[in-house]
Design goal:
Strand content: 5-15%
Strand order of the largest sheet: 2-1-3
Radius of gyration: 20 Å
Structural class: mainly alpha
Distance between the termini: 53 Å
Shape: globular
Length: about 250
């Protein structure tokens, strides 16, 4: 098993392993059962509600430019859909663990790490699929604003592509974002679902995990990046940017 594959396997298994660890650290089986009963007997707070549902694809996967229908459906059903299911399961475990007074903090934090991981996976996948399905042609105001931030639009594209190719063969995301704190449009390198730039609203998201391209392109990550650009839905990017500019960063007195 390659290192990236091993890493993804360990991440995908961590939710279930955290649950087993939690079970083993409770004082006894009765205590664990009591914690589940206590959690079930009270109204479910919004923060622990396991109600996430997969968001439908906004395009016909059979009509993508250069992507097979098979890879789009597999990506949506297995990778994104799997994270939605796991996120719901983790939230249920969190509710039970919080209700159990014997839950060790480090065991609870193991679940919270998985919560962070799966939340990132769900959100980034939804943003990724939502900014696909277009003709890849950026024009008008969005092209001008991105060009102004990077000197010209071509410089932005060169950097975005270079980050993506650099992540090839491993995992991660490339994100064009609007940083509310800095008031700046920037490209960001993300190694996994756990980490994202502070105070930043994503405008364009590209999945660089191997599951996003290996089935169609093998190890040719650069070819995947080319096809991704051919399918960008720039109207979505423009709408995200317009909305992001309406938000204000925290402006606290010195």
């Amino acid at each position: 098993m390659t290192e990236p594959s091993r890493r993804e396997f360990l991440m995908s298994a961590s939710a279930s392993s955290a649950g087993l660890l939690l079970a083993g650290l409770t004082t006894d089986a009765a205590s664990l059962e009591a914690s589940h009963e206590a959690a079930a007997s009270r109204p479910v707070a919004a923060a622990f509600a396991a109600t996430h549902q997969p968001k439908p694809l906004p395009f016909d996967p059979a009509k993508m430019h250069g992507f097979s229908e098979k890879i789009i459906r597999s990506h949506w059903e297995n990778n994104y859909g799997g994270s939605v299911k796991t996120l719901n399961a983790v939230k249920q475990q969190l509710a039970a663990a919080l209700a159990n007074k014997d839950t060790p903090p480090f065991a609870y934090n193991d679940l919270k790490r998985e919560h962070l991981l799966r939340t990132g996976s769900v959100i980034f996948h939804e943003l990724y699929f939502d900014n696909l399905g277009g003709d890849g042609k950026a024009d008008g105001e969005v092209r001008k604003q991105i060009g102004d931030a990077f000197g010209d639009f071509e410089s932005w594209e060169t950097e975005f592509r270079r980050i993506g190719v650099g992540l090839g063969g491993g995992s991660g995301w490339v994100v064009l974002g609007y940083n509310l704190h800095l008031g700046q449009i920037e490209n960001y390198w993300l190694w996994d679902h756990l980490h994202a730039p502070a105070a930043t609203l994503p405008l364009l998201v590209m999945d660089m995990y191997e599951h996003a391209y290996q089935m169609d392109f093998g190890a040719a990550a650069a070819k995947y990046v080319d096809v991704f650009f051919e399918n960008i839905q720039w109207n979505v990017v423009a709408a995200r940017l317009a909305q992001a500019r309406r938000f204000k960063a925290f402006d606290l007195p010195a």
